[in-house]
């Protein structure tokens, strides 16, 4: 006779110590609550299996694993023993029947089950609905493990989705301890690791799976003949490549400092005051981590450049998020892509989460029900909810050019700490921009009439000023002549700035921002007219 589990008793045993609230994982809670079907979204089958085995051992349950290659086998069965497996259970319908027929309480882990839920595979979908009904009165649970979500509408009320978090510091600390123990007696390896360096290595691994972390540490050991300060460079380089593989986030190498940006003194001051907010002293003082900033303004006026400089100023890594890649062709994958990107960003926090041209990314969210079955709307809703409720120190920097395309929900208080309007540069800022780009190209700004150039570039954006300098240098190099003020003035005269082509749109943007956003430039940095008008 099968012994009763703690969650099978009609009343708690008299000497049973209650489990404190918050100590159970979400998976354990669902299993104890006798949820019949659980869908775990994770790449880490081994970690999920280990957690399920731990819970099963705690509750006195058996554990079985299924894959399309092995069929249904007892968890931990060796490859040698699997040669005598029941091949009939490779069919998922047969395997689910076996799970229903088993009498003893158990967990059944079905790996990579998502292909069977695609399209119109009604036999599997119907079988899962029937199994869900059958298991409700038992102490058995089927756990589907997959790196992506495939959710037929017929199963929405029967399946419970669980996002399995990436490994935490404790997991990587244990992994590093195990590896150090394994290689400590190897005379070919030089292990020079202090407690402080160990902490830095563990933090550098955050955002990876345990398998990826183990591979990266192995590479660091081979490449550096041990572990040392140089191992951090190996780990960070490999980590960037791994993060880029998902196609959603790019580990951006920002090298621009505040000196690379001309003007925008008000915005710079705001950022400078928040430079130390991620420190322990700020937390002890009671300051919350800043949520984010929206940079709205004219194209080419330094919004993206400012996003990069924040990374350098605050000495934090920056992850560039490509929203366009979120929208996969498979139903359900877009929402999962968004959750995956958010999960990675939170795991490596504190970090800067950069979304360029967010207005284009979520332009169709309001009317998506008639165009993409509501996918854009659901993805946008996931992002908004996270923005309002996020607890991790992830600073969101979003840039936008077209305010008319921004959903009003995005501009509500609580999403961003502040909205800054980045206008066309003033005379003073244009002179500074000329000086910056001339210096970058090994030209002495002191040999140019910056005041005259700034006046001639009235209505030009920073990007257009840079392009004028580059164009002049091409001509000068071809003609074997020096770059001069006169040549630059000629190049400027031949250029029609965007502010002239799209003057109506820019005026509309200015009118909207007048009472809804803070100017990125203080009054002292503006032209004498107060409100910077186009000087055409």
Structure, described:
It contains 20 helices and 15 strands. It is α/β, with parallel strands linked by helices and 536 residues long. The protein folds into four domains: 136 residues, Rossmann fold (3-Layer(aba) Sandwich); 77 residues; 171 residues, Rossmann fold (3-Layer(aba) Sandwich); 99 residues, Helicase, Ruva Protein, domain 3. A seven-stranded mixed beta sheet has the order 9-11-12-13-10-14-15. It is elongated and about 90 Å long. The chain starts with 25 loop residues before the first helix and ends in a 17-residue tail after the last strand. The N terminus and C terminus are likely disordered.
What labels would you give this structure?
Rossmann fold; 4 domains; six-stranded mixed β-sheet; seven-stranded mixed β-sheet; 20 helices; alpha/beta; 536 residues; disordered N terminus; disordered C terminus; single chain
Q: Which SSEs are present, and which pair or pack?
A:
Blueprint: H1 26-32, E1 37-41, H2 45-59, E2 62-67, E3 71-74, H3 92-101, E4 106-111, H4 122-135, E5 140-146, E6 159-163, H5 169-183, E7 190-191, H6 195-205, H7 210-224, E8 226-227, H8 231-245, E9 249-252, H9 265-273, H10 280-285, E10 292-297, H11 303-314, E11 318-321, H12 333-347, E12 351-355, H13 358-361, H14 375-389, E13 394-400, E14 418-422, H15 427-440, H16 450-456, H17 462-478, H18 485-493, H19 498-501, H20 503-513, E15 518-519
Helix pairs in contact: 3-4, 5-6, 5-7, 6-8, 7-8, 12-14, 15-16, 15-17, 16-18, 17-18
